[in-house]
Amino acid sequence: MENPTVGELTPPDRTLMGPGPSEVHPRVLRAMSTPLVGHLDPSFIDIMNEVQDLLRYTFRTENQWTIPVSGTGSASMEAAIGNLVEPGDTMLVPTNGYFGGRMESMAERAGGEVVHVDAPWGEPLDPADVQLAFEEHQPDIFGFVHAETSTGVVQPDVSELTSIAHGHDAYVIADSVTSLGGVELKVDEWDIDVAYSGPQKCLSCPPGASPLTLNDRAMEKVLSREEAPRSWYLDLSLLEGYWGDDRAYHHTAPITNVYALREALRLVSEEGIEARWERHREIAGALKAGVEAMGLEMNAPEEYWLPSLNAVRVPEGVTDTDITSYLLDQYDLEIATGLGDLDGEIFRIGCMGYSARPETVSYLVSALGDALREHGADVDVEAGLAATSEALGR
Asked: Where are the annotated segments for Disordered (predicted)?
């Protein structure tokens, strides 16, 4: 076999406005180019401590067990579910989006029995339905998606849901992949036992080190398991030795990704978490105003609208993939199509982290309007641009 000839790496310079990854802040990119040290180096241990403190601030928690899991957001998701769910446990999961289905798959692989609380795609869970599901099934663990990336819906009434679960002595796992750092999330105040996330969305950080937090009650369940979790790599009783007080070797951490996460979280702290939530609402609000003035319809009602992920209905007369391909080819702009039950019916437009800036939203509305008009949609591009500009105060 001959040596392959491969040129320099030259990926396109895209404007990332899909469901993730979002654009990476220049400071985060610079942090990734700093010198590598060992994963047990005293200097890296200091960095680990700083990352944990910054994650607690961003999650709004005092939980000791707050760490970045080595892997993408699905790794922190599997660490949460695979450690908390034991063989024979029953887990209640939602049916109102794609990622409730992923919760189900992971719970079943962990040996759990899965039951459902139903809601249509595009709607949040109704606390009354959650109450009925608890009375019928008496689950040990309840999982819900705080910000559903597949539908553009944010779950309200979180404290009411956790109160129902704890009233039945169940544990609560919250998927905050598309909310951490961009949408109001208060782990301690809302009484969430476990929350996991990914760094590549509202934190604007490359994937590779994914946030996870557990309270003492949840960690006690993990540490008192009779049977070890099925994943050695994601076993929190083993990771405790590395991220706890001992700092004992478990695996080689993704050092550069931890650097990146530290810098991304520094940016959160400098901006202030409440100010960051407000920025996402304002900038995404300008995007929403623009597409609605253009003549498009949001998938989620106003009261459930998710600022970090805007699900926009595909108008009549166009095909979703024609539009997304045109935006990539003509504008180097990425948005996404729908998943699951909404495949072909919506565009998923992210407004997250460093991508949540006035210039990116203005560019998106202009480019999307051109793409739709070019493909025969009945849209008023000028009205959309004017509404976006007005909402941005320009």
From this structure: 1-21
CB neighbours of residue 343 within 10 Å? 12
**The pair of three-digit structure tokens given for residue 327, joined into one six-digit string:** 């935006």
pTM of the shown model: 0.97
The domain over range 26-270 is classified in CATH as 2.40.160.40? no
Report which of 22, 26, 73 is spatially closest to residue 352, judged by C-alpha positions.
Answer: 22
DSSP β-bridge partners for residue 145:
175
Cα-based angle 207, 172, 98 (whole degrees, multiple of 5)? 50
In the numeric block, the tokens 């076993």 are attached to 235
Instruction: Give every CB contact of residue 266 below 8 A, 6+ residues apart in sequence.
Output: 27, 54
The tens digit of pLDDT for each residue in 328-369 reads 999 999 999 999 999 999 999 999 999 999 999 999 999 999
Report the interhelical angle of 255-271 vs 273-294 (nearest 10°). 90
pLDDT tens for each residue of 143-172: 999 999 999 999 999 999 999 999 999 999
**Looking at domain 273-391, what is its CATH homologous superfamily?**
Aspartate Aminotransferase, domain 1 (3.90.1150.10)
Encoding tokens for residue 206?
A: 């490359």
Written as six digits, the tokens of 167 are: 């009233």
Element (H, E) at 158: helix 158-167
